[in-house]
Amino acid sequence: MMYDIRQAIEHNYRILKERVAKAAERVGRAPTDIVIVAATKTVPAEKIKIALELGIRIIGENRVQEALQKKPLVGGGEWHMIGHLQRNKVKKALQLFDCIQSVDSLRLAEEINKRATSSVRVFVEVNTSGEPTKYGVSPDEAIDFVCKVAELPNLKVEGLMTIGPLHGDPRPAFRMLRQIGDKLNTLNMDNVHIKYLSMGMSDDFEIAIEEGSNMIRIGRALFGPRTT
Predict the structure, then answer these.
(1) What is the mean pLDDT of residues 154-160?
(2) Which residues make Cβ contacts (< 8 Å) with residue 215, sequence separation at least 6?
(3) Which CATH class for the 2-223 domain?
(4) Rounded to whole angstroms, how far apart are CA atoms 1 and 167?
(5) Which residues, 6+ apart, have CB-to-CB distance to 130 below 8 Å?
(6) Average pLDDT for residues 42-51, to the nearest whole number?
(7) Which residues, 6 or more positions from 159, have their beta carbon under 8 angstroms from its beta carbon?
(8) Helix, coil or strand: residue 104
(9) What is residue 2's predicted lDDT score, i.e. its pLDDT?
(10) What's the Cα-to-Cα distance from 144 to each of 50, 106, 152, 191, rounded to whole Å?
């Protein structure tokens, strides 16, 4: 059974890498510039370990509680928080994650800064689709928001993150995030260097890559459909 699971993940990963390479090459980019984050919401530790053995380096978890249960069983990888983080979970999150990709409010940023015992790598989440059900700062406020976060001494802003729209063309949303990142990098702020644009998931990662993403968060296209 575990052999079958491994074969399936190996197959999915091979196809995924081929699709990433083709998307990158279409816009004159190197496939090696694209980082694949394994989005592991509801994915059991056994499957995550297989992904790491195949070459995945970063594990993206949506929930603190899941990471708390799975991280000791997985025993490796770089862990990123990619889901909404409640302020009352910040202390535990800082013990579990190497990077928090979902900073979406100043109160959360201030709580991370307060609880941090060393420099914390963060991404700012931007709601580029404008959908009310999604978290993230509005695109119009993103520059000012990052400027405020930059004043918090324990936070190091390394990227921006967004989720494409549920329906319709995701291209404008992804393009918007790239433009915000470009603008931020011209400001030369301390504690801010937008190295990563984390955008693109199983349904839209190729478009995201074409629009400048260099970090994609992949669950279903790597692990198969969720079973729970």
Answers:
(1) 98
(2) 34, 35, 37, 159, 196, 197, 198, 199
(3) alpha beta
(4) 36
(5) 138
(6) 97
(7) 101, 123, 124, 181, 194, 195, 196, 197, 198, 215
(8) coil
(9) 63
(10) 41, 11, 14, 14
Q: Give the angle 193-196-200 at the CA atoms, nearest 5°.
A: 155
Gap between the Cα atoms of 180 and 140, Å rounded: 9
Per-chain mean pLDDT for the chain? 96
Over the stretch 95-127, which tens digit does the pLDDT of each residue have? 999 999 999 999 999 999 999 999 999 999 999
- Percent of all residues in the chain with a pLDDT value above 90, rounded to a whole number: 96
Token reading at 39: 């989005």
The pLDDT score that the predictor gives to residue 227 is 67
- Output the six-digit token pair for 63: 């929930």
Residue 137, token pair as written in the block:
């700062």
Asked whether the beta carbons of 190 and 228 are under 8 A apart, the reply is: no
CA distances from 184 to 5, 52, 106, 141 (A): 43, 33, 17, 12
User: What does the alpha-carbon distance between residue 71 and residue 68 come to, in Å, rounded to a whole number?
Assistant: 6
CA distances from 145 to 13, 152, 223 (A): 36, 12, 35
